[in-house]
Amino acid sequence: MKHEIDFAAQAAKLKLETRAFIDGKYVPAASGRTFDTINPANGKIITRVAAGDAEDVNRAVAAARRAFESGSWSRMHPRDRKKALLRFADLIEKHQDELALIEVLDCGKPISDARAVDLPDSIETLRWHAELADKLHDQTTQTPADVVSLIVREPLGVVGAVIPWNFPIFVAMWKLAPALAGGNSIVIKPAEQTSLSLIRMAALASEAGIPDGVFNVVPGLGHEAGRAIGLHMDVDCVSFTGSGEVGRYFLEYSAKSNLKKVVLECGGKSPALVMRDVQDMAPVVNQLATGILFCQGENCSAGSRLIVEEPIRDRLLDELKAEFASWTVGNPFDAGTRVGAMIEAKHLDKVTGLIAKGAAEGGKITFGGKRILEETGGYFVQPTIIENVRNDMTIAREEVFGPVLSVITVKDEAEALAVANDTSYGLAASVYTDNVNVAHRLAKGIRAGTVSVNCFSEGDFAMPFGGYKESGFGGKDKGLAAHDQYLEQKSIWIQLR
Q1: Architecture of domain 7-266+471-491
Q2: Span 450-475, pLDDT tens digits
Q3: Which residue from 119, 473, 483, 489 has the highest number of Cβ atoms inside 10 Å of its Cβ?
Q4: pTM of the complete model beyond 0.85
């Protein structure tokens, strides 16, 4: 008989660090203030976290600048930076069960996702970028015999990273791994809803041998700590993942301060196109369900708009509803749970409000659509399918960030492509077809940063990730391209005598 692990009991035993991590040590907020962090699965307070503000950001940025200017990390041999980052990855792996429990407690996501996706992928992302630390080669150009030309890449300095609440460690790793590999110092502001895992991870960075001041974590409210990072005159770059509304603030902060570089990843309304030539629906419905239900739909690249050609619509939806029914909603610490809780009460209200608006504007809810498990005190909503959606309806235009699929029926490939591109976003898309010509036409025609064919995927850590249009700009997360946003390029021209 297989032994069931009591993850909830393990989580109850956690000793949670709640202070900021600045200049190599844990410290309370300068003001002494704290804020509540809530367990989305039961609505109860987990603990109180240091509420960092501008003063704490000043302390963190000053420490990061001192470390950068000292050269303890920025001028360390890249081979030694690589070794330290690999030790960091090893320590995260050693503590991955603890970190996964913290993620579930704080985020409300299923323990199976945290253990199988979030932590393993974070570890491998860090290792991949660490291995690049001593392989980011400079260049020369062809010049006259009496000239030496060099094109060198140097670290920016102090990087501010503002992290979303849906993938606290995972998205943080997309930013900190290339930033640190290139020799920068970093100040991380976690989302106020999910600060605990990054606070814990900071100690592991120090244990790995990353010098004091290089890795700093300042929890706090967005309009205080986040704003302070955006406006800080000694922050050289801000990398932000989150809503377009907040992303615009960072552009404003940059303009009002030192014109710091701003890298934005700001969400999506990703289409999933299913073409009439598909014969085997089973793998398609599995991918469609994963695309919208993974992480409770709280995923910026979630395939939230199903665009399906009319001849196969009914058959697809029949099978898709059966697949939706197999995704269990419940306690995130139960191994069998596949859909956890919405992050907070306010967000639950947003999701259910958009579902209701979708119905009011003419959509038909044919699966789910309701809040459930209210007796737990948690913020759970059913996986939901809304049919008869037009692309001009609110449910098709706004990012729901929940397990809600809008179904839009089209007559042919041309209309499918037109509807897919009729959005202010352009983060991701997926195409399902048995015809290689259709696959290539649509993959080339869709205006999105990532297009998956016959799967729902963002690619692995070697693939650049970022969007078109209002989904963001300024650089790419993941892949070799991620390093470019944290490095300055310098031209050196040497006249020989």
Answers
A1: 3-Layer(aba) Sandwich (3.40)
A2: 999 999 988 888 999 999 999 999 99
A3: 119
A4: yes
